[in-house]
Design goal:
The structure is a single chain. With about 110 residues, the protein is of the alpha+beta class. The chain has one domain: Nuclear Transport Factor 2, Chain: A. Helix content is about 30%, strand content about 40%. It has three helices and six strands. A six-stranded mixed beta sheet has the order 2-1-6-5-4-3. α1 runs antiparallel to α2. The protein starts with a helix and ends with a strand. It comes from Halomicrobium mukohataei. This is Ketosteroid isomerase. It holds the Pfam family SnoaL_2.
């Protein structure tokens, strides 16, 4: 899977609650830096998404994808189950050995 396809698979895994796919696209030492917190480790992040995230029925429409030499940036929106916009975001994905090693999320509030 190429980097753009892997980034798209990340959002598909979140939206479809496919935690096996989510695990498959993340490196074991995955780090996610968000405005409100940082997750260290694939297992911790998947656990949060499966059991602890405040809103589980969300979607992540992608508005644009930008590719760099070793990163992919995705501009999109986080929508609630009624399609109300929760926030806009830009996610910057870094890769190692074909999987997501690091993710940095940027929102208008941050």
């Amino acid at each position: 899977m190429d980097r753009v396809a892997t980034a798209r698979a990340y959002y598909r895994a979140l939206d479809e609650h496919d935690y096996d796919l989510l695990s498959d696209v993340l490196a074991p030492d995955f780090v996610h830096e968000r405005p409100d917190r940082t997750f260290e480790g694939r297992d911790r992040f998947v656990q949060f998404m499966r059991e602890e995230r405040p809103q589980t029925e969300t979607s992540h429409p992608i508005d644009a994808v930008y590719t760099g030499a070793s990163t992919v940036a995705v501009e999109g929106r986080l929508l609630a189950s009624d399609d109300a916009e929760i926030t806009r975001f830009v996610d910057v994905f870094a890769f190692e050995d074909g999987v997501i090693d690091r993710l940095s999320t940027h929102t208008p509030e941050s």
